[in-house]
Amino acid sequence: MADERDPKVSQRYRELGSEEPPRHVEEAILAASRRAVRVRPAPLVPPTGRRRWYFPLAAAAVIMLSVAVTWHMQVERPDPDGYVASAPAVEAPKEMKAKEEQKPAAKAFTPDPTQESREQAMRDAPARAAPQAAPPPVAGARAPEAARADRVFGKLSEQTIEPPEKWLERIAELRREGKHEEADKALEEFRKRYPGYKVPEAALGK
Amino acid sequence: MEGADEELMLAYRDGNAGAFQTLYGRHRTRLYRFVLRSVEERGAAEELFQDVWLRVIEARNRYAPRARFTTWLYSIAHNRLVDHWRRKGLALVDLENVEVEGNNPDPARHAEARQNLLRFARALEALPPAQREAFLLHEEAGMSVPEIAQATGAGEEAAKSRLRYAIAKLRTAVDDG
Question: What is the rounded distance in angstroms from the CA atom of residue A134 to the CA atom of residue A131?
């Protein structure tokens, strides 16, 4: 295109002036260019490479954590049954003797498997807690665990602390004395406490 | 920031705001004059000039250096001008108030220079739109005939012819002075 160029024409054209864009227009353009860079569009394709593991890994971690917390809460939750049994457990030696004496009555007991495991847990609990249970048993004083449970669940009646054999014996005695209404109430309470316990005829009053 | 225009545009596409600033600095005055001398009023020229650059910003993600950046930039400007001409009709910016640069101590010579310049401005204004555009692209953007053809969507022969006619008419205006 060199042959088309005319220096005189170009020179005259240059003499027309060298106008420049106004400042406010230039500022608007540069501001728009910076804004456009700051606001970048989100990726339209799913993450690739290492990043594609992030989501499944995060989901698995959340599930694991949820299961662990739930399980831990179930294990740690104070079981009213267990707590009730722990109170008299401080008098374990005395009770052991009583149990030895009442072996025939114990044979009649056919607990369901869940009840049996719960009872086992109740028996094991004081044994496990024994090394930590620093205060020695004091007559008339309740175990610290029982006091703590009282704060949580409210104070239970003394009746619920009574061992099942003694409780049933007392119900049978009430029946012998003709106090059937009182015996029925006590039996109802007993069944609530020990749903799987087999009640002897003497206590049933039939 | 140094680099070819195309590299700067790619850098801006990838998030470098400074690259755009450099690019803008290189082309701002020439593009502005090209637009200013293609439309009827300064306000419209400013609006079109801003619009061209905003289109460059918007199109950054689609930008691929298939041609020179200059060709791409002026093709955007050409399309906007065509839209503008369709709406408003073609006319040049008022060149009556053009001032002769420099200090000429001789008032007679100063007046003569101003007359020569006005004659040239009127000749430029009188050019058919396609010839004037070809001339402005040649002078302001430094485009060759093939680049003018590419930017305006015309054939090379047509672009060459337009430019040749434009220069011939303007030369007459210069020689008359």
Answer: 7
